[in-house]
Amino acid sequence: MALALLERRVRKREVMQSSEDIKAYLRLKLEHMEREVFVVMFLDRKERLIACESLFAGSIGSVEVHPREIVRRAIALNAAAVICAHNHPSGNAEPSNADRQITEDLVNALYLIETRLLDHIVVGHGEMVSFAERGWL
Q1: Any idea what the CATH number is for the domain that residue 24 is in?
Q2: How many domains are contained in the chain?
Q3: Fewer Cβ atoms within 10 Å of its own Cβ: the N or the C terminal residue of the chain?
Q4: Mean pLDDT score, 42-54
Q5: CA of 109: how far to CAs of 35, 45, 82, 115, 116, in Å?
Q6: 47 lies in some domain
Q7: Mean pLDDT of 59-85
Q8: Region 112-125: what's the mean pLDDT?
Q9: Residue 117 has pLDDT above 80, yes or no
Q10: What share of the chain is helix, strand, coil (3-state, %, to 5)?
Q11: Residues 122, 88 contacting (CB under 8 angstroms)
Q12: Which domain holds residue 15?
């Protein structure tokens, strides 16, 4: 119920004013998932939310992410920036080497279309890791 209410407010652009708002939304959306799910938030030039889409779903231990599909959606939505997030059903939010590699691949792919990757957030049980906050972007 809380997620549905928050999603209505997100669509009306009543929230998402800070990184804490974004993290709270992503925690509600992803923390309970039993499989890895990769979500992309597409933002306009003023960093207002255009769309939030679950683009990829995987197994309990991995999700295959295709940068090409994220680039395609960013172009279709005329996004200037994106925030990516995915969950770790194991509960441990520490990013894997594969998480770090896909983030680097996304930065490079999005750069080609003049779109910024603002953050990649990994959601665990009761914890989250932000690549931006760690200085990895």
Answers
A1: 3.40.140.10
A2: 1
A3: N
A4: 94
A5: 26, 18, 12, 9, 10
A6: yes
A7: 97
A8: 97
A9: yes
A10: 35, 25, 40
A11: yes
A12: 2-130
